[in-house]
Amino acid sequence: MAARRSGSRLEGEIERCRGENQWERIPELVKQLVAKPLQLDDLSELLLGEAKLQQYLKENPIKQGSSPRGQRPRLAEVRKHLTAALERGNLKPDYQQEATLLMGKLCYVEGDYREALNHYSRVNLDEMQLVGAPVYRLSMIAEAYATRGLCLEKLPAASPSLSSRPADRDQEILTCYEKSGDIALLYLQEVEKALSAGLQNRSPKPGPVSQDQELGYFLETGLQRAHVIHFKNGNLTRGVGRFREILRAVETRTTQNLRMTIARQLAEILLRGMCEQSYWSPLEDPPPQSPLDDPHCPTRSSRDYALSRRPRVYSGEKYDANRDAVLSRIPEHNADRVISLQSASVVYDLLTIALGRRGQYEMLSECLERAMKFAFEEFHLWYQLALSLMAAGKSARAVKVLKECIRLKPDDATIPLLAVKLCIGNLHWLEEGERFAKMVVDMEDKAPEFRAKGHLALGLVYSLKATDASLRGLQEEYQRKALGAFQRAQSLSPTDHLAAFYLALQLAVSRQIPEALGYVRQALQLQGDDVHSLHLLALLLSAQKHYHDALNIIEMALSEYPENFMLLFTKVKLETLCRGPEEALLTCKHMLQIWKSCYNLTNPSDSGRGSSLLDRAIADRRQLNTMTLPDFSDPETGTVSTHTVRDSRIRSVCSTGLRGSFLISDLFRPAGHAFCDHFPRRRPSTASNTLCMVCSVHATSIAASRVEQALSEVASSLQSSAPKQGPLHPWMTLAQIWLHAAEVYIGMLKPAEALACTLEAASLFPLSHNVLFMKGQVAELRGNTEEAKRWYEEALSISPTHVKSMQRLGLILHQLQRYSLAEKVLRDAVQVSSTAHSVWNSLGEVLQAQGNHAAATECFLTALELEASSPVLPFTVIPRTL
Amino acid sequence: MLGEGRGAVEEWLSEFKTLPESEFSSYASTLYQKKNLVPALYRVIQDPNSELLEPVCHQLFELYRNSDDRLRRFTLQFLPELVWMYLRLTASRNRQSNGCIEALLLGIYNLEIVDKEGNSKLLSFTIPSLSKPSVYHEPSSLGSMALTEGALCQHDLIRVVYSGLHPQRETFTAQNRFEVLCFLMLCYNSAVVYMPPSSYQAVCRMSSRLCVCGFPRQQQKMWREPCNRVVLDAEFMVQMLTAIYHAIYNGEWDLGREALDDLLYRAQLELYSEPLLLGNAMKNSLPDSAPDGTRGKKVLQVEVTPTISRISRSAVTDLSSSSHTLRSQVHIQSCEEISTPHEMFLFF
């Protein structure tokens, strides 16, 4: 078979083997070649020499930074072959050059750099033809340039063969590497092309399987050394430029790993060494003078070297420049082929840094979630995932992941603390929270500030449990435990204002007003402008009936937090008491204005905070008026838009508000969509928590507010995939504002206006127990006892423990002389909230009417006592979070 | 205050006033040559009782109003120190001596939130969409690892707004404080490359101090001045981290790492997930060893890395299920189908 092969065919086969690095096949082919009656002795020497050298290098790869090998018997053999090939001078010029280049390479491997350079100086590398050259020769030239660069670097500066100035020399080295890299890329592209062409031509015989190309030391050096030198010299501009040149080359399979490495390195450089103002896109020219470049190494304007052929580059017109973009691609590459956990985690860290500083936690959490395939028993990745989920507001998942983190690293107090924070936040998983908090408390050897945090967390869990508990004994038990935990926290960390503040709050809830005042003052000394401490101080003062002082405190707090609705609600209450309802109504009006400016103004910007403009565009198209769903619709909702407000006063309240998009019905038109969609993270955390608390002073009313929430979530899920936390709260705020206004009107005995306000709230949350309760109040004011009773009953069917509804219902039943039922309702109410003085009072009245005077007296006394320490709003409106 | 420093400041105060507009840019270059001016200005800013503080703040604002980038950056380099002084005095409730620093900070903020035409700025950046299938999360649907035109087209670019439409602020309140400061730090970070080493030191110092003052950890520091705890906002901490990260790699290895540790300590106590997330990532990806000749040396270097590690890849293939093997076969095939280069665009 071999004999039948024609000479040219054989040569072609040899060329292919050289191109595909199949050195082990060369000796056999050379034998066939020698058998031919052709004058190819010298060529076969060359081929054998090359094959043996390459084989040697394949078996003994040179490591980066390793020292030269010196003479080896196998290398001596190579030298013999090559010398034989060269000395007769019978070779064709091309082969002559090749032999010389191989000689140079051999000399380098043996550590004789000067001799290697001498060989290279015999061949004019720059004039070697790249066009139409066989594939293997491209590789050879690329290697030759790289080797030359390596030799130049190794040799001391004063080398005779080189130009004298060190700067020129450095430049020459760089040029060598850059050329080597370019030609190497070209070579790889050609190999790929040849390979695919070859595979298509040949039948799928089981012949030599095309392996992935291995680059080898010289080509790798050629591809990477240039930018390494740039960065070493502190020349970021050119280093980045070189990175981009390599990345722009058309990709081959062999370069994929290289590309990954380089993309990662580029990302590192961009993140660590650049900023927005110093960044330039690949389409622009680099800045002439850049602070990125080390001033001590003056950049010399770009070196344009000519290559007869350049690697193909991607030549699209539309380069979009962004540094973060390059990063987001890397994990994709990396993830598909795990080089190692190490580099994967480095890439994810870089991605975290890039996305985190732009607030893209949502996207980050998705990316990290996909990283979890590397994360088996790997604490760092689990922890990062948990944190990103937390930052993205995905609390429930975050807690689950945190559990795994705790398993992996049981002695870190921060992890369970984070879990408690989530549990007592909007998840309201108090049992789990308690377990996590106990974990922290049990870690005895921690620093006091962390242990204090643990006790604080435990106290908060107990405090919330106390609020939730429906049995009085249990309530008191939890309150005691909470108080103990807070005291412990406070003594462990006396400079923490939160410990003092929550201790004060817990004391206030148990109506130990003077003690509470002491601690809240302490908290304020530590943190003068803490909004919750100020609020608590005001409520405590109002409990002592110092309404004017309380109002002053609130106004002072409002000067620091002008848009805090929680403070404003308290202000309305206090103003009604000390300055009359007119003032309170003005505050309501002011609140409407603030609401409008807050959520109107922030609308375009906040949309970018959590999600993208694209999401917004989608939201645009969907409509909000689907909110009046059949299940939730209220007979009156339809008429809201048409109702007219007769009284001039309410018109003055609403007039500013009703302008523009403020009419509630308007808000549901597509144009008004934008408000509810995206909200900056900051705002809900203050205003919204408040509202949850306002709406849900008690346990079951949390369930009721969940109904509200569910309802609105249906609405919001209809319009977009916006973060779940955001959309609700502004609407709940608005409803609360209307309800407060309604309450003020009821206090002024103006049922029509009160009803109008209530209906505004009802159009937002028709099934809210607060709205239903307010409707009952209005009906009562109008003397429609039956209607009022019906509303209260409806409110209680949604929120069975709504104390105010119970109290009013009890009174109505009392009026209707259904004493025993009234007594039952009121007793239930007292069970739910033992500190509601008005309920005690009503109960007393009912008992009195029943002739049970002793018990009635008891009730009146309790009511009296409680009233003396009752704040204008329950202390529990103040959020309890970590 | 030292006499010579004071002299430099006074000279600086007087000479800009008399400067005609045409000489601003040449003045900018001389400004950076005055070696003892910057330390003297730091001393003025650090001393709330200095009578020079008010004219200095005023002058810094004048420079910032200038259209010359170098003059603006001259002011910007003091931002960390100014923020530190402001927050510290706020925590100690010593408001009156704070006035001119507050005014300067608000002035810079109000200048920065609008563009040249006076419209509100909208800062955005581009990322490839993750909603489309990619090699990364749905490799099977894409088939090939190669960067083909098709593969890139599937990467929709999303423009994401990360900051914008901030309202003008007349005064600081507890409520808007960190909104303003975050934005100021964002501005600082967007020009951080142009800042001198003294500013990197200041930003590390500021971060460390803000994070530990009033906490038990302050006892371990050289700096023991009694001070109340300063409230910090999670987003502000993220901005501080960004600046620290830059400082670490650009000459302030030791100070930067100390600041990073202090910030993580504080983030743990505050239970803020965002700074913890970023800080952990930064700490985890730090090079193992300090650079040689630490101070002032950039650590931005790369190494020639072997690009192929055969063992791990074959290990992956061996370990993975048959579906993985299938996928890699698919992958090879589709690679071979790509024979011609594609016109395409890249993202960098």
From TrEMBL, chain A:
It comes from the Eukaryota. InterPro entries: Endocytosis_PI4K-reg_protein, TPR-like_helical_dom_sf, TPR_2, TPR_rpt, TTC7_N. Keywords: Repeat, TPR repeat. Residues 282-303 are annotated as: Disordered. The keyword DNA-binding does not apply. The keyword Repeat applies. GO terms for cellular component: plasma membrane. GO terms for biological process: phosphatidylinositol phosphate biosynthetic process; protein localization to plasma membrane. PANTHER family: TETRATRICOPEPTIDE REPEAT PROTEIN 7B (PTHR23083:SF365), TETRATRICOPEPTIDE REPEAT PROTEIN, TPR (PTHR23083). This is Tetratricopeptide repeat protein 7 N-terminal domain-containing protein. It comes from Pygocentrus nattereri (Red-bellied piranha). The lineage of its organism: Eukaryota, Metazoa, Chordata, Craniata, Vertebrata. The gene is TTC7B.
TrEMBL record, chain B:
It holds the Pfam family Hyccin. The keyword rRNA-binding does not apply. Keywords: Cell membrane, Cytoplasm, Membrane. GO terms for cellular component: cytosol; plasma membrane. One of its GO terms (biological process) is protein localization to plasma membrane. InterPro entries: Hyccin. Belongs to the Hyccin family. This is Family with sequence similarity 126 member B. The lineage of its organism: Eukaryota, Metazoa, Chordata, Craniata, Vertebrata.
